[in-house]
Amino acid sequence: MTTSLDPITRQIHHPYEPPNGFSAFPPAVHKASTVMFADVAALRQRSWKSRAGYTYGLHGTPTTFTLEQRLADLEGGAHCVLAPSGLAAITNVNLALLRAGDHLLLPHNVYGPSREQAASLLSRWGITHGLYDPMEPASLQAALTPATRLVWLEAPGSVTMEFPDLAALVEIVRRHGAVAALDNTWGAGLAFRPFDLGVDISMQAVTKYPSGGADVLMGSVVTRDEDLFHRLLHVHGMLGMGVAANDAELVLRALPTIGVRYAAHDLTARALAGWFAEQRGVRQVLHPALPGSPGHAHWARHCRAAAGLFSVLFEESVAQPQVDAFVNAMRLFGIGYSWGGPMSLAVPYDLDAMRSGAARPTGHLVRFSIGLEAVEDLRADLQAAMTQALG
Ligand SMILES: *Cc1c(COP(=O)(O)O)cnc(C)c1O
After folding, report:
1. Which overall architecture, per CATH, does domain 40-256 show?
2. For the residues 216-222, what does the mean pLDDT come to?
3. Where does 258-390 sit in CATH, by number?
4. Assign residue 298 a region: left if phi > 0, alpha if psi is -120 to 50, beta otherwise?
5. Which one of 127, 137, 154, 230 has the fewest beta carbons within 10 angstroms of its own beta carbon?
6. 0.85 exceeded by pTM
7. What digits encode the pLDDT tens for the residues 125-135?
């Protein structure tokens, strides 16, 4: 670089060469808003819509493309788009597949904000929605209308943890000619192979297990279908959904350990769920791998692992203040939303406000996300808090 330039200019036009002969395990982190073209012809030729090359940082960098490939691979899909949160990934799917006059279906135990989005936002654009009982395939069949274009599935359901017969639900959606989209945040591509069950789209909150650090918000949408991918990509581009290179880097760093982390969360969660099931004041432990939990047989048929989540339903005799005192008394469990991070978390939920229908569980419920702490420490903490709050 010529020394006739001002030193400030040379900070920008520096003699940088990508390292030759440098080989290391981590992928490089590439950051850019502007991506430069060799000449005007190259600029005119390339379009973000094809994903055949780089056009602008918002539409992808080598770092985000690498992460997309890895997440698609993890779930057994072919294509992936990244969104700035799990909820943004849901939004991408909804807006790519629905227009005014269309109808979408959600399971009644769907991730709460997904239902809120349908009720408060999609409805404003003339998109209607209905709820079905995921534990009764006939209920899905009955809820379909000629305008139903998209059906969301979730396994297990949020908070109440019912595991549906996914294969039966997917079959009904496909026969109707609608798109089956799975919220696969719990399975993370590890508990079961979503595309082997026939879903068209698998969405994940990358925020949870792929990140594993409780420090990133991100979502992914994976599909095997070329046409669906281009519909998703179009809306992704039109909504301006980029993810930051540093966030992508954190997830790329965490993915090689997702298998052992998931297995460790699973092992500890099963041990503590089993312990809870024997405690006084506990009516039921909702964990799909526990016999007697709703949909256990479906879990056993579909899955080879079970993540780190479960919910504890207390006896009706246990009052809300006691449940709150129990949650407050735990020292190793943070009180807060989300899951998949190293620290264990607990959240009390008000089921009456969340669920309708005669079959819903009643009573007070606490949802646990089990972290990576030593199981004996967690058990001792739970024991002490139960004794303090429930006597
Ligand atoms: C957390 C979560 C989401 C949303 O992810 P965010 O990154 O928090 O927006 C969606 N679905 C499920 C099942 C989740 O647990």
Report:
1. 3-Layer(aba) Sandwich (3.40)
2. 98
3. 3.90.1150.10
4. alpha
5. 230
6. yes
7. 999 999 999 99
